[in-house]
């Protein structure tokens, strides 16, 4: 089952594309300088290290604790909220909602220590899944893995969930890049109705499912209207099929003015991590068993949203909508 998840990017598709190009230019450019040996040696290392993003990655605690992430946290600000203690002797699968445009909540909470993940969940290590194509870029792949990002495929997910001794949290942005096309202030539409690969994965490995909802994630950018069936939405869907990432036409504020720009609005994000849903292990679950657990997960996600929405200024008439 393909893992239908993951980030169009932790910072946004546009910023990731710029970083990717810079890394490619650096890699190729060094070949034509006195430092050509750097690229040759890195290429050799790259081949030897090719499978690392699919086998749990390679985090760097110095980068995860960088002061840069604390400044980014304080800009919005971003807060990680725990609702239940988690057993560090077990592995868990967290479904993160919504994707939003920036995916700031997922990145800052699970790929850095800016919001205190290790203090809130002692003994647990977080792994956030991201589109595989980004790990094929020299240098950039190492930067991604340093934060705990891993490739978004079944092999990568299984390598984390089957680790003996427990202590691992696999975070999947279930709605994926496609959900970003519906990310706008006041929207609570989740692409989840037919996303069941992560549920099957949890059953096959016998790990508890945990819903997580990031209040404020959709408030960071305005987006050009792109209703379903419009020419813009059709073009965006076609580009997504070709490129693997969505391209929402978003805008927010500028550096010195607040009327227009690509810098996100300074609006608070509260990522609430729910309670574990116990899952019985079964190697080949039936579709009925997957559907049943999927409905249980949706129910727990709705409960989490309803219990906390008033606290984070969501109008009482607002409810989650699933497509």
Automatic annotation (TrEMBL):
GO terms for cellular component: endoplasmic reticulum membrane. It comes from the Eukaryota. The chain crosses the membrane at residues 25-48. It is a multi-pass membrane protein. GO terms for biological process: diacylglycerol biosynthetic process; triglyceride biosynthetic process. Keywords: Acyltransferase, Endoplasmic reticulum, Lipid biosynthesis, Lipid metabolism, Membrane, Transferase, Transmembrane, Transmembrane helix. It is found in: Endoplasmic reticulum membrane. Pfam families: DAGAT (PF03982). Its EC number is 2.3.1.-. Its main location: endoplasmic reticulum. This is Acyltransferase. The lineage of its organism: Eukaryota, Metazoa, Chordata, Craniata, Vertebrata.
